[in-house]
């Protein structure tokens, strides 16, 4: 403002310079007092706090000096006062930047300037661009549990408040020594007993509790992260042992696998839907919608489509058109209670990424099921109330990801379903419900199902 007010077109700003300097000096004073009070909590690293504190105090002094010199210059505009004023103003601005930077380092960590910087800006500044997301562990058995698994969790969820420059509760967690030292309430680790460790106790408190960690408003630990922390502590909280040297139950092993392969515990269908598919022609989609066809995205973030057909006639022809226009994008199809025939199933078989098909109460037969043999991602199939028999199941036995088949009120027998289960990777074949009268007041309803 001082520089702008020297130009003729901004001369009207000149009277406001003194007011802004006064407001800034008083604000700096209040901020410094509050900062000194906050520093008494002892939650910050001494070296960084020392620099921030004294740069803040000097900022207050230079702010008031600049204010005083501004008014002195107005009354007696000598060259000496003018130089002193501009010099003081320049130093004040440098102190403002320095105090602000070190204050940010105290509250957000020393890397706060670059941590969330866009990759393009990092490249321009010559800063290495790190890969997004957690680093994958190539050899899980040889990974050092603390270094490769536990420390990254703490760095992600704990160290923003418990690091070299900030120690909430007199606790730092960025090194082995700091973890073992504990905080103002003593040790946070009880090797061999996660349940007795203060770290785990606080993690399990209600999020609204004052002692819950991480505090409300911060990114919380996931269930998998908590499980891994508990496992590490229960196994002795070693800082040098490898994964292969510690005992792990099946639940822990399942989570550990995701550290080397994020898709390890996901089904092929989950992976497919997460990866997404190719874009489609929006105009074609809108044309179907204008016809009254219920076709829409599964979500706004991807190109997967779901289709529900309510009209009872012309279903086969409509599916043929959809298979031509959206063969890769349609993943859910609902054609229940329509005149779908085996001809329509031929079109359905062209939706190569189909994961769910509802075709109950339609005219499909065993012969039509041959068209579904190539749907490698089909996970759920509802054929309730159709004419299929045990013979039709043979056409479905090679589907690698089929998990649920609904076949009640069909000609499929329990024996046929059992045989099918032995050949397929199916979880369950649902054949309907069995109703038994226990007594005059009690009715027992049990599903008739064959499952692994």
From TrEMBL:
TM region positions: 16-39, 51-71, 83-103
Q: Which Pfam families match?
A: PSCyt1
Q: Does the keyword RNA-binding apply?
A: no
Q: Which UniProt keywords apply?
A: Membrane, Transmembrane, Transmembrane helix
Q: Which InterPro entries match?
A: Cyt_c_Planctomycete-type, LRR_dom_sf
Annotated Cytochrome C Planctomycete-type domain ranges read 158-217
Gene3D superfamilies given for it? Ribonuclease Inhibitor (3.80.10.10)
Name-wise, this protein is: Cytochrome C Planctomycete-type domain-containing protein
What organism is the protein native to? Cyclobacterium qasimii
